[in-house]
Amino acid sequence: VGSPHGPSTIESTFSSGSVSGDQYIGGLFGRVDDEVSIKANYALGRVSGSYKYGGLLGDCYYCSGDSAENYWVIDTTGMATSAYGVNASGFSIVELQCPTSAGDLACANEIYSTWNSYTDESGEPYWDFGSSTDLPGLRLNRTTYRDNNADGILD
User: Which terminus of the chain is more solvent-facing, meaning fewer CB atoms within 10 Å of its CB: N or C?
Assistant: First the structure.
């Protein structure tokens, strides 16, 4: 996404491609400024940088926007941390594949608890959880997009 500026909202997205660069590098966002709201997103592609880089985002500059339930895959991004200031958590790919519904309590961690509240204009949830070996798929125009093996290619 690069460097979104506020006031703006980015919700219900994912990135599976690798990203590398010098500074402000993140699996989904390079640098977030001002009043940007970030909700229900995840990143799983490899991340590499030399200054201010992280699993979901590289830098959060004066972050004052609302953020909720954002994730990155630790083992595929290669990142143990993400920028401070945004509600984001890193988990293993197995942990993020476990839930088969929003807020699935059968898994070790309660994740995606409000993701069913993010819906399209007809009221259909954006996210499809599939099975316990699937990462959440983004549903757009009745097609589900996902990358379960983190190879950067949609399945």
Answer: C
- 53-70 per-position pLDDT tens digit: 888 888 887 776 677 889
How many Cα atoms occupy the beta-carbon half-sphere of 100 within 13 Å?
Answer: 5
Instruction: Give the whole-angstrom CA distance, residue 68 versus residue 71.
Output: 9
- End-to-end, the C-alpha distance of the chain in Å comes to 22
Task: Give me 12's structure tokens.
Answer: 């219900």
pLDDT at 135 over 90: yes
pLDDT given for residue 61 in this prediction: 78
CB 23 within 8 A of CB 51: yes
Q: With H, G, I as helix, E, B as strand and everything else as coil, classify residue 76.
A: helix
Q: Residue 115 gets which letter from DSSP?
A: G
**Average pLDDT of span 143-149:** 92
Q: Which distant-in-sequence residues (6+ apart) come within 8 Å of 142 by Cβ? A: none
Whether the Cβ atoms of residue 86 and residue 33 lie closer than 8 Å to each other: no
